[in-house]
Design brief:
Structural class: alpha/beta
Radius of gyration: 22 Å
Number of strands: 18
Helix content: 10-25%
Bound molecules: NADP nicotinamide-adenine-dinucleotide phosphate
Largest sheet: 5 strands, parallel
Order of helices and strands: EHEHEEEEEEHEHEHEHEEEEEEEH
Distance between the termini: 7 Å
Number of helices: 7
Strand content: 25-35%
C-alpha cells in the first residue's frame, strides 16, 4: 500500500446502520470513523419508543442510539462531529470526504446517511413549515397540548405519530389518502384503541392557508374529487406530515445507482456500483426500513468492506 490513512473506513451517518457498521469494523480490527452532523441515533433519536428490537422490549430512540455509539466506541471506533459537504472518489480509488473542518481520506466508505421526511406536497406547506406544520411529533407535539392535530399518512410512522399525539392533543384526525391504511393490522388496532383518534379515509389535504398562523385547511375527497374548506381559530390546530421518507443520497449520487424509491441499489454484500463504497440502512433501496434491518445492513457492509480492503491490499 503506497498511501497511509488514519482510518481504514469512514462511515457517514451515526444512526443504527452507521454504528453497527462501526462496531463490526472495529471488531474486525479496522480503524473506523463515524462522521455525524447531529446527535447519534439518526432518525430514531426522535422516536420516544422503540418496541420491536429483539431482546429490548422498550427503549427510547435516543437511548438506543447512545448505547449503539458507546458500544462501537468501546470496540475502538471514533466519532467525528462534522457536516460532510462533499465526497469525491480519487483516481486511485480512495474517497476524500470534505467536512466544514477538514478533509478525511479513506480507502473504503459506508454511506449510512439515512433518509429525511417526504413533504406532503400540498399548497401552503412551505409557508407554514414550523408554524403549524411539522414532521416530528416527538419534537413538536408539546406545542399542541389540548389542540386538534391532523396527521397525514397511513403508514407505520403516521400511526405512531397519531398515537403519540393522542396523549397530548385533545383530538387527532388521521388523513389517509386511500380507503385503507398501509400500516399492518397490529398497528392499526393500536390506533383504533385510542378514543380521541378519528380517521378521514380517501382524503388528502390540498391546501393550507391563513397568516401568520394557518387558519384554513382544504380537503379533497379522493373518491369524488369534492373539495371542502374548514376554518379554524389561529393557533388551535396543527398538521403533522408522516408520508414516508426520501433517502439522503445527494453526497454520493454520482457514485451509485438509485432505484425508483430513491434508495441506493446494492448487492447482498451492501456493495454499490463503486468499488469500496457500501450503503447501509434507510439510504438503501430496501423493502423494510427498521432499526433491526439498518443494524443488519451495517454489519454486512462493514464485514464486506473488511474483505474488500484485505483483498485489495489496502490495510496497513
Ligand atoms: P410508508 O410505509 O411509505 O407509508 C407512507 C404513508 O403515507 C402511506 O399511507 C402513503 O399512502 C402515504 N402517502 C405517501 N405520500 C403521500 C402524500 N403525498 N399525501 C398523502 N399521503 C401520502 O412510510 P412510513 O410510515 O414513514 O414508514 C417507512 C418505513 O419505516 C416502512 O417500512 C415502515 O414499516 C417503517 N416503520 C416501522 C415502524 C415500526 O415498525 N414501529 C415505525 C415507523 C416506520 P399509500 O399507502 O397510498 O402509498
Amino acid at each position: 500500500m503506497s498511501k497511509s490513512f488514519t482510518y481504514d473506513v469512514a462511515i457517514v451517518g451515526g444512526g443504527p446502520a452507521g454504528y453497527s457498521a462501526a462496531l463490526y469494523a472495529a471488531r474486525a480490527s479496522l480503524r473506523p470513523v463515524v462522521i455525524e452532523q447531529g446527535m447519534p441515533g439518526g432518525q430514531i433519536a426522535t422516536s420516544d419508543e422503540i418496541d420491536n428490537y429483539p431482546g429490548i422490549p422498550n427503549i427510547s430512540g435516543a437511548e438506543i442510539g447512545t448505547k449503539m455509539q458507546e458500544h462501537a466506541e468501546a470496540a475502538g471506533s471514533k466519532t467525528v462531529y462534522a457536516m460532510v459537504t462533499g465526497i469525491e472518489r480519487t483516481e486511485d480509488g480512495t474517497f476524500k470526504i470534505k467536512t466544514g473542518q477538514d478533509e478525511i481520506e479513506v480507502p473504503a466508505l459506508i454511506a449510512a446517511m439515512g433518509a429525511t421526511p417526504r413533504p406532503g406536497g400540498f399548497e401552503g406547506e412551505d409557508a407554514f413549515r414550523g408554524r403549524g406544520i411539522s414532521y416530528c411529533a416527538t419534537c413538536d407535539g408539546m406545542f399542541y397540548r389540548n389542540k386538534h392535530v391532523f396527521v397525514i399518512g397511513g403508514g407505520n410512522t403516521a400511526c405512531e405519530e397519531a398515537i403519540y399525539l393522542s396523549r397530548i392533543a385533545e383530538k387527532v384526525t388521521m388523513v389517509v389518502r386511500r380507503d385503507e391504511f398501509r400500516a399492518p393490522r397490529g398497528m392499526v388496532q393500536r390506533v383504533e384503541k385510542q378514543d380521541n383518534i378519528d380517521v378521514m379515509f380517501e382524503t388528502s389535504i390540498v391546501k393550507v392557508a391563513g397568516g401568520p398562523m394557518p387558519t384554513e385547511i382544504t380537503f379533497r375527497n379522493n373518491a369524488t374529487g369534492d373539495l371542502t374548506t374548514e376554518t379554524f381559530e389561529p393557533g388551535t390546530f396543527g398538521i403533522f406530515v408522516a408520508v414516508g421518507y426520501i433517502p439522503s443520497v445527494d453526497l454520493v449520487r454520482d457514485l451509485v445507482e438509485t432505484a425508483p424509491d430513491g434508495g441506493i441499489v446494492t448487492d447482498e454484500l451492501m456493495a454499490t456500483k463503486t468499488p469500496g463504497l457500501y450503503a447501509a440502512g434507510d439510504i438503501r433501496h430496501t423493502v423494510l426500513r427498521q432499526v433491526i434491518t439498518a443494524a443488519a445492513d451495517g454489519a454486512i457492509a462493514a464485514t464486506n468492506a473488511y474483505h474488500y480492503l484485505e483483498e485489495s491490499e489496502l490495510l496497513d
